[in-house]
Amino acid sequence: MKYNFDKIINRENTNCIKYDLRKKLFKKDDVIPMWVADMDFETPSFIKDAILQRAEHQIYGYSFRPDSFYDSIVNWVKTYHNWEINLKQISFSPGVVPGIAISVLAFTKPGDKIIVQPPVYFPFFTTIKENGRQVVENKLVSKDGCYAMDFDDLLSQIDLRTKMIIISNPHNPVGRVWKKQELEKLVEICEKNEVLIISDEIHSDIVFSQNKHIPIATISEYARENTITFMAPSKTFNLAGLSTSVAIFGNKKLQKTYNLYLENLHLNLGNVFGNIASEAAYTNGYEWVVEMKNYILENINFAHKFISEEIPQINFIKPEATYLLWIDFSKLNMTDNDLNDFLINKAGIALNLGNAFGSGGEKYMRMNVACTKEVLTKALNQLKTAINYL
Ligand SMILES: Cc1ncc(COP(=O)(O)O)c(C=O)c1O
I need a surface site. Which of 80, 144, 241, 321 has the fewest CB within 10 A? Predict the structure, then answer.
């Protein structure tokens, strides 16, 4: 291994949400933070050095994104996802969620219906509701913990006011990597009903084993023309604090409208360090990502074995992607609030409450395992002790 993922970096006193907001959010500043989707690993030197080199220049005025910024994304998407795009198809987004919100504003009208597939990443709901559109829930169905899309329900929910669907591909929090047949079926329904597809593919680089991420835009000509795909280095390389993401279009008209909104909101500039870090990551990050995924997969396997053998009262299905475990706590028979309180105050760990992800999240918790093995082991042992004490 070239990179050291066991190294513990003290993140306290850096205004970091995961650690420095513990006191405020959980009323305890020593709880092990395994909630917000943010990794604890050291930023690799090829990113850090690029930022430091730019920082040394000492003037950080307005800057633009050169062709090399876009080329690095074109190459990454081709190498990693076998998707041929050209640099003109890429627009900037100051984060994936802001890009989704811009798309909601640009491509739907107040009162329009937008479909989401809960339990799902909760800002999807807010980008819809806070912009005066209606949320339509096409709930995932779970069979023995394995989640799938419910196409009959999807069809029954669509009417003339339904203009858009926002999907998480791969899916946060359930960890599914959507298969070709599933995406084909989804596209077929969207095509018949003229529903625009917003595909959040922020987790697409962190896919394990034999699973293969398929950008939904590659499914068909309709999908290419009617999908806005969001990708970012923010999960893959832990650069979320740099607010640099991209939207990929296969339709010039849609892209022009999106760009106009971005410009009118004066959000198109981005920031100088985000641009530098993204290009450095996508240019030099191939080996690091392989090692990072191996480390995370070991953490997932370790947590799975530990939980099955030592804490059989809870369980999770191994995710096909993401560093997030979607853990079923229903056998503890607690309300969501009691469960949260128990985890914080008795087990000393902070997770995301499953019910925040909408319908189907009740009695689940999301655990982020993008931490060192040492921290993960400590957290699981604390959890075991607390549950055994019940
Ligand atoms: C599915 C998904 N989309 C978007 C984001 C956040 O993206 P951004 O910080 O770029 O808005 C996350 C973060 O956890 C996520 O899981």
Answer: 144
* Residue 245 belongs to domain with CATH number: 3.40.640.10
Residue 1 has pLDDT above 90, yes or no: no
372 lines ligand 1 (CB under 6 A): no
What is the distance in A from the centroid of ligand 1 to the CA of 202? 6
Answer yes or no: is the C-beta of 250 below 6 A from any ligand 1 atom: no
Ligand 1 pocket member 103 (CB < 6 A): no
Q: What's the alpha-carbon Rg for the chain, to the nearest Å?
A: 21
Residue 305: enclosing H or E segment and its boundaries?
helix 286-310
Q: How far is the CA of 366 from the centre of ligand 1 (A)?
A: 15
Residues 29-64: tens digit of each pLDDT: 999 999 999 999 999 999 999 999 999 999 999 999
Distance from Cα 312 to the centre of ligand 1, integer Å:
31
**pTM, rounded to two decimals:** 0.97
Q: How remote is the C-alpha of 294 from its chain's centroid?
A: 18
* Residue numbers of the domain that contains 34: 17-44+286-388
Residue 125 and residue 78 share a domain: yes
Q: Compute the distance between CA of residue 22 and CA of residue 29 in angstroms, rounded to an integer.
A: 5
End residue of a domain, out of 252, 283, 314 = 283
Q: What CATH number does the domain containing 318 carry?
A: 3.90.1150.10
Task: Indicate if ligand 1 lies below 6 Å from the C-beta of 101.
Answer: no
Mind listing the pLDDT tens digit for each residue in 132-165?
999 999 999 998 778 999 999 999 999 999 999 9
Q: In ligand 1, which atom is closest to the CA atom of 240?
A: 9
What's the mean per-residue pLDDT of the chain? Answer: 97
Q: How far apart are CA 305 and CA 300, in angstroms?
A: 9
